Amino acid sequence: MLLHTPQIRLYLFLSLFFLSFIGESSAQNYFCNSSEPFCTDEAFTYAAGVNTGQAEPGPNYGCLADQPNPAWFHMRIGIPGDINILMQSTPAVDIDFICWGPFPDPYTPCSGQLTSSAIVDCSYSGAATENCFIPSTLIGEYYILLINNWSNQSCDITFSKSSGDGESDCNIINPSATNNSPVCIGETLELYTEFIEDATYEWTGPDAFSSSLQNPIITNAQLLNGGLYSVVVTLNGVPSNPATTNAVIASTPIFEITNMAGDIQDTFRLCHGEQMKFKVNYWDYVGATWSNGNTGVLSGNINTSGDVWVESFNPTGCMGRDTTYLEVRDEINIGFNLPNFCQGD
């Protein structure tokens, strides 16, 4: 076993076999609870990270004196038997791995169950090729494999099943979750995940939200509806890793129309021929539109009777509105009917 000089990132949470699919991927699965599923149908290749730090504290990392540039994966056994996973880097640089199992699910073990007794195989050699041997697997078991790029040099890491009768369950899915926020208070929040035939969906979120719809909505959204939403997609009885999305509910502008002296009234009154300048006191605005057609200003001159309103937008695009009334009194014409008279009368 050779000592290394710390470097790269990749923990291939290979908690299963790996051959899942041939394709390139940038590892984003830097933590156990965000491990990616893989299956043994085909080889899997991903771009190893560089300078992405050490693996999270907590697990027993066995033979790994350090764990730079982690990438986590998991697999579920579909056909029982031994499985050997071959890992290699291109170009040839030092990589290491550790595998834990078996477990009943891929995420609960991340909190306190990756102990020394759960280690299945581990290597901290200086080699560019590693073999992970998982003996006597049973249907439904989960295994977690972490691969790291100890060299800290740019490389691709490929892993696949090289021998054994066992196979992984390739029905494991890795959903995504998104939403249409930011949305304003009172608008509709929409949650999205991709359609998977024959799958079921379980959403949870703030304010005890839950839904079994693929793409649920929350009408008349309020501030308490903002926060982290999670969806678990189950296919053939196998639940996915939770996918999460953060929803932002934005407040609408709150302001009042006043005269220039700061007075607030339901009705303002003017004499004929006069005009009144109104203003709104609102610090966080992007634009404003007045009932007289003025735009982009926080004050306006009005000289006709009727509703005076202003709509203002904040940086998130939410609109607020306030209304008052201006009464312009009619002009008073005074006439005198006097008899004719002469000087001295």
Structure description:
With 345 residues, the protein is an all-beta fold. The protein has three domains: 32-168, Jelly Rolls, CATH 2.60.120.380; 178-250, Immunoglobulin-like (Sandwich); 257-328, Immunoglobulin-like, CATH 2.60.40. Helix content is 0%, strand content 41%. The protein is built from no helices and 27 strands. The protein has strands at residues 36-37, 44-47, 70-79, 81-90, 96-103, 119-123, 129-137, 142-148, 156-163, 167-168, 178-179, 183-184, 189-192, 200-205, 209-211, 217-218, 227-235, 238-239, 243-247, 249-250, 257-259, 267-270, 276-280, 287-290, 299-302, 306-313, 319-328. The strands form seven sheets. Strands 1, 3, 5, 6, 8 and 10 form a six-stranded mixed sheet that branches. Strands 14, 15, 17, 18 and 19 form a five-stranded antiparallel sheet that branches. Strand 17 (227-235) and strand 18 form a beta hairpin. The chain is rod-shaped. The chain starts with 35 loop residues before the first strand and ends in a 17-residue tail after the last strand.
Overall structural domain count: 3
Number of continuous helical runs? 0
Task: Give the total of beta strands.
Answer: 27
- At CATH level 2, the architecture of the largest domain is Sandwich
CATH class of the largest domain: Mainly Beta
**Strand proportion:** 35-45%
Helix and strand string, N-terminal first? EEEEEEEEEEEEEEEEEEEEEEEEEEE
Low-confidence stretches: 1-27
CATH T-level topology of the largest domain: Jelly Rolls
The separation of the N and C termini measures 134 Å
Tell me, rounded to a whole number, the average pLDDT.
Answer: 82
For the sheet with most strands, the description reads: 6 strands, mixed
Helical content stands at: under 10%
Any idea what the radius of gyration is? 34 Å
Could you say which structural class the secondary elements and strand pairing correspond to?
A: mainly beta
**Shape designation:** rod-shaped
